[in-house]
Amino acid sequence: MELHNGLLFWPTTLVKEPHTNPPIKPHYDAIIVGAGMSGILTAKALIDEGLSVAVIERNELGSGSTSANTGLLQYSNDIQLHELCDLIGEEDAVRFYKLCLEAVDQLEKTAQPLKDQADFTRRPSICFASEKKDVSKLEQECEILVKHGFSAEFWNELVVEKRLPFKAPAALYTNNDAEMNPYKFVVSLTEQLIAKGLDLFENTYANIIEDKGNDIILHTMNGIFKTSRIIYTTGYDRLPYGKMKGADINRSYAIVTEQKPTFESWYENALIWETARPYLYMRKTVDHRIIIGGLDEKKANPAKHESKVEAMANMLLDKLHELIPGESFHAPYKYCASFGESLDHLPFIGQHPEQPNHYYLLGFGGNGTVYSMLGSQIIADLIMNRPNDDARLVTLDRKYGIK
């Protein structure tokens, strides 16, 4: 399955060094299928445990959803906290939000030794009410966030007009989010891990995966791999083993503008999104561009025709000009990408209920990078046989999961 179509921005920001696959070791403690954000963060977690790890990727490192990721790192879910409380209970919902907040901190720590720190920068977030009927939702959300120790402010219409270049009935201002260059993060982290012993195999597709006793055998065009444990981090692509249930694959559009060094009309360079579903989202980049995305469609595959991508890109430009009047923007980068959403708005992380040596980290939802970070810690605990009470929140044998 192709995960994106169009001209991507992030791969232009870093020259990836040519990679030669290493010799295959006789046996690995763990093999990870998929060399994107989830796969590489899981590799780091397991290498930090002292395990021998290989990552196999059917294409090239970071070439899937990572390259199309817009790099907004938010602890808030696509479903707001008060709504998640109604769905899974207040205690579990608050715990999940706090896990996401901790994951942003862990991403910052991981980015610090990387090249340019992968452009990791702390940012606040502003969620504005798309319509008047959404004001009460933001008031309710602010109340429960503050109740549980999250930093949040409710802005009425007058405050919005004073601080933002567009009008909205209300907005919710929160702290402790961030942004980064996801492609630079994955490529730079992988270079660091290879120096620590990671074996990365690009253009290596596992066409047969079989259990033989205590081992798992992977047959590929490049050779046979043997491991004790396998972790699937294939994102929104087809699973090589097992089937999804309780998830939808949709597609979204994004554009990246030209550089605008003189443009300053942006409150605290915040990450901006809205209450409407599907929603628009915006951020700035370190080189003074704007990324804006949205216009989601309930279709699994990216739009193939250039005319369709161009038309949706123009709609996003129109939305940008509505939100920032008086400025003129162009979009040299425009693309369509697939993304996954679970029906209960939580990722799929954990051990297969019937195949004990098969694990999954699938960050379905708008917070894929954050889910990848928190999921890598859960996977490491499960593999090392450490108790992790949080694993039950995202387990595969809940109502929605892997079968």
From TrEMBL:
Residues 29-382 form the FAD dependent oxidoreductase domain. Transmembrane segments: none annotated. InterPro entries: FAD-dep_OxRdtase (IPR006076), FAD/NAD-bd_sf (IPR036188). SUPFAM superfamilies: FAD/NAD(P)-binding domain. It holds the Pfam family DAO. PANTHER family: PUTATIBE OXIDOREDUCTASE, SARCOSINE DEHYDROGENASE-RELATED. This is Amino acid oxidase. It comes from Solibacillus kalamii. The lineage of its organism: Bacteria, Bacillati, Bacillota, Bacilli, Bacillales.
